[in-house]
Amino acid sequence: MPLLPPLSPRALRLACATPALVFFAAFWLLPVGQLLLLPASLGGSTYWVVLTEARYLKSLLQTLALSAGVTATTLLLGAVVGLTLARQRFPGRQLLLSLLTLPLSFPGVIIGFFVILLGGRQGLVADLSAALGAGRLTLAYGLGGLFLGYLYFSLPRAIASYTAAASALDGALEEAARSLGASRWQVARDVWWPGLLPTTGSCAAMVFATAMGAFGTAFTLASRYEVLPITIYNEFTNYANFALAASLSMALGLLTWAVLWVGRRLGERAPESAAKSAAGV
Predict the structure, then answer these.
(1) What are the transmembrane regions (predicted)?
(2) N or C end: fewer C-beta atoms under 10 angstroms in the chain?
(3) Model confidence, pTM
(4) Which residue segments constitute the domains of the chain, with CATH numbers given?
(5) Does the pLDDT value for residue 277 go beyond 60?
């Protein structure tokens, strides 16, 4: 049997890339293309429905506000806890870090269930308020419950990221700053902040994008505060309005992509800022 002629380097690369290209086309290009074309069946105005219809705009703005609040709180708490765990050594530190990051293994539905156990109609807060004569207070099914659920879901990621980043900070820079008479605030501003800026940018983008698209926790808790993923779910499951759901999905996807792009750009520029601050120290 004659041997097949050897493939050229270009043909070999193409042969190796073909499975990936087929997968990319089948599971990304085709669905996204269909998502882009669906709103056209109801007219060009459907592409802008999220900005022109009050109900959908309200859902979008509520999602943005919730995601921004969760992101800011997560970064603040994650940075404080991460710096503390990175700089302090005490018995049980590794166990505490493991417990703090345990929720990474929980899906959103379970986290929503935890919030209901805490602030639902039969939860701990309701039992305590009833015992105090204030009636059965609930916080699980509105903005408060969603905020706690999203924070519970995002905070372990921030703690893990900040702990690793703070552990990698150059201690010589902090010692040099202190030897020159820098206060704790100046050390935080000139040493810690530039060193943690890449982590802050990437963590902020990740937390914000996760909050924008979170469904499991929102599906469990969002009965009084509608967010865009639930709006999309209702449109294509309850009303079979696929074109409108596609338009809302595009808006959500574009916003999330823009935030991730900004976070990536901040992460790329952060090393330059850190180098300048180090030189100043």
Answers:
(1) 12-40, 60-83, 95-118, 130-153, 203-222, 242-263
(2) N
(3) 0.82
(4) 47-280 (1.10.3720.10)
(5) no
